[in-house]
Amino acid sequence: MSVTHEDVLAAAERIRGHVLRTPVLEIAPGVALKLEQLQHSGSFKVRGAFNRILSATLPEAGVIAASGGNHGLAVAYAARALGVRAEIFVPEVTSPVKVAGLRALGAEITQTGAIYAEAAEAAAKRAAETGALEVHAYDQPEVVAGQGTLGPELLEQTGGADTVLVAVGGGGLASGIALGVTGSGTRLVVVEPERIPTLHAALAAGRPVPVEVSGVAADALGASRVGEIAYRILSGAGVRSVLVSDEAIVAARRTLWAQHRIAAEHSGAAAFAALLSGAYVPEQGERVAVVICGANTDPATLSSG
Amino acid sequence: MSVTHEDVLAAAERIRGHVLRTPVLEIAPGVALKLEQLQHSGSFKVRGAFNRILSATLPEAGVIAASGGNHGLAVAYAARALGVRAEIFVPEVTSPVKVAGLRALGAEITQTGAIYAEAAEAAAKRAAETGALEVHAYDQPEVVAGQGTLGPELLEQTGGADTVLVAVGGGGLASGIALGVTGSGTRLVVVEPERIPTLHAALAAGRPVPVEVSGVAADALGASRVGEIAYRILSGAGVRSVLVSDEAIVAARRTLWAQHRIAAEHSGAAAFAALLSGAYVPEQGERVAVVICGANTDPATLSSG
User: Fold this and answer.
1) What is the pTM of this model?
2) Quick one: pLDDT band at residue B304, thresholds 50, 70, 90?
3) B303 vs A contacts (CB less than 8 Å)
4) pLDDT of A251-276, one tens digit each?
5) Which of A145, A162, A258, B232 is the most buried (most CB within 10 A)?
6) Architecture of the B46-134 domain
7) ipTM of the prediction
8) Which CATH number does the domain A5-44+141-301 belong to among 3.55.50.30, 3.40.630.30, 3.30.450.40, 3.40.50.1100?
9) Which helix (H) or strand (E) holds B125?
10) Please, which residues 22-41 of chain B have a Cβ atom closer than 8 Å to chain A?
11) Chain B interface, mutation test: which of A261, A262, A265, A303, most B Cβ atoms within 10 Å?
């Protein structure tokens, strides 16, 4: 279950051409946004999905995944691109936009359970029956390595950044990036909603522990505990953990639209919220890169909430 | 009134740091989108506005502009950034989103006239009274040179493109880019809505002629004739002129959101519509860059129309 810097580099080779090299926008001197919300399927999740699927020998039954939405969309997208059958289990909290998107990608959908963990349990049971390849939303080595490909890409594009701000739900993206930027001198600041502090609680407890899941970003960051792999990597990497309020996330999302014409979902605006609200204050001259990680949202809400 | 390649390069120096270097996204091999809708004020227009204002000795009365909206937003943005007073005249067709944006930038607004030309006439009369510096929406050398800075920037970012597709209203952006890419071997394809064919009609007539203004992109591409400067440059540069239907523009805008999470206004999707609808068909291996030029739109309409 261990993942290394080299696994991230191998994943980058494996998924090249299947995912987009999303652009970076410098909105002010030293403040770069990594526009990963422009990625295929509307979030970073295709990086891990392609890496997991392309690393495996595929069974007849295809792939199966459980997801708050973005991971499901990513697995459905990758499966369609590779001509593989996909079954996606999503919790009932999932937004109609995301469910419609999944159906449009040709996946078979089962909507079950109040939160992510319950949908995941149902998917695992189904996988045991059919033999389909499980693609976990965050807690698999190939998934973490795939998400991590964003890290070296960002360093190349920015010519090195002092700090990367990234949101955490299950921790796949953050831990992948931590591995991906190992040795570069780039620090990681992981940002969580106050109402879903999976990593924050784990660091305090010394191990992944369940947390209450609520708030505006619950449909995408609503893992009830941080992944084992992510915890091992992030607790060892000395990352800084920062919490942001739902109000700060809403304000950041509104600013991304009003000032920058960037459409982001709430989870996608969480890392930017840390900067905008002052939850993280860069040093003088510090070069900061902020990952905008998803845009699977109803655009009608961009101005209002 | 003549403008040169060197004027574009000088403009790029002049406005550096005032405008964003907007990113490029390669959505498929050989198809790059220049995401100029992420520019300050939501469109390319700040390039010309900053260049015009920074080239002049400013009168007490500040600056004045007439605009279908985007140019007004850009002049208001640039004036605020430079601490200059701005008066903006906009036609009655201007969307409420754009008027609200203008007010938020601190500009004094006068909404008058059914179409752009009438608002422009009123602004010219007012400028004669107050002595304010007129910033034209397209037909001034400094404005054309400023918009043209997008051209060399795009060539740098793409490592050269065979073809640039760009929308035309008054022609400031297209003619500026034509000057900016002079000598690079890059061809220009200018795209207009069938219902506002200012350049198409001018090329047919041998001079700028008035056209009827209607359709989905009228609030941004609704100049009633192409600019004199733009006509001289574009008619001499051997550009290819392509028309697209309103239906094609609507479909392209919807695709930009649904497939790429890019929010564009109708005018901003016009160039992409030429590619998507087959109005322009690239050769095998041709590297195409498409300018997405504006996003000042009600996001609630991104999915629907």
Assistant:
1) 0.94
2) confident
3) 298-300
4) 999 999 999 999 999 999 999 999 99
5) A145
6) 3-Layer(aba) Sandwich (3.40)
7) 0.93
8) 3.40.50.1100
9) helix B116-130
10) 22-27, 35, 37-38
11) A261
